[in-house]
Every structure is written in C-alpha cells, then in structure tokens.
C-alpha cells in the first residue's frame, strides 16, 4: 500500500506476528535510474524482519535491472504488482493495465524470473472490468513464465476498492495452477481468514487495508486459527502502539515528517471509537512531536473516564 507500508508501519505489524510483509511499490524504471526517493522505499528497519520487495513496471529492461539489483539484497522474494488501479500507474501501461496485455506482462515476468535467484511472485486482479475477467488465464501464464506464487485481489480494476471482493475468483485460480495462491480482498476480521481459507483452499491469506490502524489483526489471525480468544486492545494499548509507531517514524524519517505522517495513522488506530473525530481534529492541528504526544495523552485519560471501547 503506497504511503502506508513503510518501515515503521511494517515494524509495528511485525510485533503482532505477520508471516511476511511487502515494501511499498517500487518503480523498476526509477530504480534503474538511481532515483533517491525510490531507493528510500527499500529501507529496512532494524526492528522488522526482511521484507519482500514489490516492484512495478512494463519495461522488461527496467525489470531486468531491478531484479538483478534486488538479487544482491537480503529480500526473500520479488513481487511484481499487476493489480494497482491508480490512474497515474495505469496511464503508463503499468499495474493493472497489464491485465489487458498478457504478451507484455509475460515479458515482464520472464525478465524478472531469468535475472534473479530470488522467488518471483505476482499480484493480480480479477481483470480489467466485468467484461474482461482473465485472472485464471493470467495466473496460468505467470506460472508458465516462472512465477513462484500468485496473489489474487478479486476485484476488477474499474472497481478500485469498492463493492465486494469475489473470493470465488481466488478459488478458480487455485483450481487451475500448481504454484501457491495467496487470497485477499476484504480481509478485515480474523473470521475473514477462516472463511476465505474454507471457500478457496488458498495457500496463504493477504491483508492490506484491514491492517491500517489494526496491527493486532495478524496476531488475531493466529488466535482464530488456533482456537484462542480474540484480542481487543484497550484505549491505553492503542495509544501506546501509536506512540511506538511515532517513535519509529522519528527514528527513520525525522521529526518533521513523523509529525505529519502520524496524523493519518492515529486516525486509523482510533477509527470507530467514540472521540475519534475529535482526535483527528486535534491531531491535524499539531506542529510538533510534543503536541502529538499531548493529544495522545488526552485520549488515554478520555478512555479511562468514559469506559467505552467502540461505538454502539
């Protein structure tokens, strides 16, 4: 998730037991050109396990360079994103635009697989729109070109993130290919993991937006699979996690960027709780780390005095 899954975010999530995390999308072409900001996306925090690197692009030469470059790092695998629906990505013929061009997509996957000793995985959507659904065909092509696994977000590009993910598409892909299939789409609760595994028989489950402000989701995946109680954080625990997240942001991004970027994360951490709108209002007026911590301390006391957890 661009702008979300940076090193501090992944580090926080790692505390609660995910299996594997991915970097933000990295442009293969920008990496080839030595873009400084692009290389910053590859930063690994001391506090996290080695993340997989997710790249995107439609130029096989750039993909070759990126794959060779990443072969000399400790990343466990290289993932190619064929699912991003963002207009600026699609306009360049990248991301989910390549769902409509299997010939180009195959050259991209082949370029990666032949120029690295790392496993190469791909992330796809159901297709371009309801008239152009080709996830199964794309997955078969990816397997033939050397992909080691396929992650399926079962929405078409024109859906973006609206509507309901059709897990039956994950099931259809799983039935047709031999390599592992990772299922995703609308994974917001621990029960969603049980349901998608039961329906699709996929090999792994991927959470994205469901982890925003909810790193406890990963620990609760394990809890529900092992029959343990679901963990629900208190207000104090939520705020303590926000503070840890903030400290990591300061460490890796500096105080100025940390002050700005913690705002959206704090809103996600407390989304759905009474007082969340007030926290958002106060947080977006902060100008320093000290002010951010003052707002967070206010909500610790607020939580103690109101004795609530969630709306309703």
Write up what this structure looks like.
The protein is α/β, with parallel strands linked by helices and 312 residues long. It folds into two domains: 220 residues, Alpha-Beta Barrel (TIM Barrel); 72 residues, Non-ribosomal Peptide Synthetase Peptidyl Carrier Protein, Chain A (Orthogonal Bundle). 48% of the residues lie in helices and 11% in strands. Strands 1, 2, 3, 4, 5, 6, 7 and 8 form an eight-stranded mixed sheet that branches. Strand 6, helix 8 and strand 7 form a beta-alpha-beta unit. 43% of the residues are buried.
In CATH, the topology of the largest domain is named TIM Barrel
Q: What structural class do the secondary elements suggest?
A: alpha/beta
User: pLDDT under 50 segments (min length 5)?
Assistant: 307-312
State the CATH superfamily name of the largest domain: Aldolase class I
CATH class of the largest domain: Alpha Beta
Number of domains: 2
The helix/strand series, from N terminus to C terminus, equals: HEHHEHEHHEEHEHEHEHHHHH
């Amino acid at each position: 998730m661009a702008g979300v899954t940076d090193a501090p975010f992944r580090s926080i999530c790692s505390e609660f037991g995910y299996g594997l995390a991915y970097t933000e999308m990295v442009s293969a072409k920008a990496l080839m050109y030595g873009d400084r900001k692009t290389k910053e996306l590859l930063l690994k925090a001391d506090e996290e396990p080695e993340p997989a690197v997710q790249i995107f692009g439609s130029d096989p030469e750039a993909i070759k360079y990126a794959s060779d470059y990443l072969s000399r790092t400790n990343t466990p695998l290289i993932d190619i994103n064929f699912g991003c629906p963002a207009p600026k990505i699609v306009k360049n013929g990248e991301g989910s635009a390549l769902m409509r061009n299997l010939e180009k997509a195959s050259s991209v996957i082949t370029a990666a697989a032949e120029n690295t000793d790392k496993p190469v995985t791909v992330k796809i959507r159901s297709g371009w729109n309801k008239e152009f659904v080709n996830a199964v065909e794309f997955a078969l092509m990816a397997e033939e070109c050397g992909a080691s696994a396929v992650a399926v977000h079962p929405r078409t590009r024109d859906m973006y993130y609206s509507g309901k993910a059709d897990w039956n598409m994950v099931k259809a892909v799983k039935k047709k290919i031999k390599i592992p299939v990772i299922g995703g789409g609308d994974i917001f609760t621990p029960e969603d993991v049980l349901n998608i595994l039961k329906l699709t028989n996929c090999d792994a489950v991927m959470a994205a937006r469901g982890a925003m402000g909810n790193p406890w989701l990963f620990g609760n995946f394990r809890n529900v699979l092992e029959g343990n109680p679901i963990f629900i954080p208190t207000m104090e625990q939520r705020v303590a996690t926000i503070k840890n997240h903030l400290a990591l942001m300061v460490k890796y991004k500096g105080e100025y960027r940390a002050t700005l970027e913690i705002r959206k994360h704090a809103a996600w951490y407390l989304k759905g709780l009474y007082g969340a709108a007030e926290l958002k209002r106060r947080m977006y007026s902060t100008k320093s780390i000290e002010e951010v911590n003052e707002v967070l301390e206010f909500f610790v006391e607020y939580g103690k005095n109101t004795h609530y957890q969630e709306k309703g």
